[in-house]
Amino acid sequence: MYNQQEFARAAQALCDYGRILYSRGWSPATSSNYSVRLNDHCCALTSSGKHKGELTPADILAVDWQGQALSAGKPSAETLLHTQLYQRDEQIGAVLHTHSPVAVVLSQIWPQDSLSLTGWELQKAFAGETTHEDTVTFPLFANDQNIDRLSALVESHMQAHGQGHAYLIRGHGIYTWGKDLAECFRHLEALENLLGYQLELLKLGK
Fold first, then answer.
1. Would you say the C-alpha torsion 22, 175, 31, 117 has a positive or negative sign?
2. 187: annotated binding-site residue?
């Protein structure tokens, strides 16, 4: 159902990025999950409960769009939040879900259901964004242990408001995506810094 060599390359890449994300404090302990599209039917995904700074290829499994394991390993409870994105847009090649302190704190205290940013040069790190004068908006969803319901809510929101570049789950973390892991990581790095700017502004009473 998937090419074993492509799976092996995806597994190693996810391990490599896991160490980077852990070193930055964005994926503490066993939190977070990452994935890479393998084809139009399945993706490579980090197994549940694995320390993200110590991933090995054995900690990566393949899952189909229904979240069913196609290889050894236990799918994350949040698998359907990955597969929802792959099913809606064939151009999405990677998804990163992280739990940085900045994202967790800001998403918990932000009063609105979306966070809009304008005027920051770093906005141009997102694919398709060409000027700091535009506005980028990131929805915030309430944390929900019912992932079927949450993934359906995310899809409904995207149908109504557009796909965007990322979203936040309150008190939980970030989901972001890209055409491949490199673009996805660039989006995440940009968003982490933009959220940091916003949190600093709040501290200054702005």
1. positive
2. no
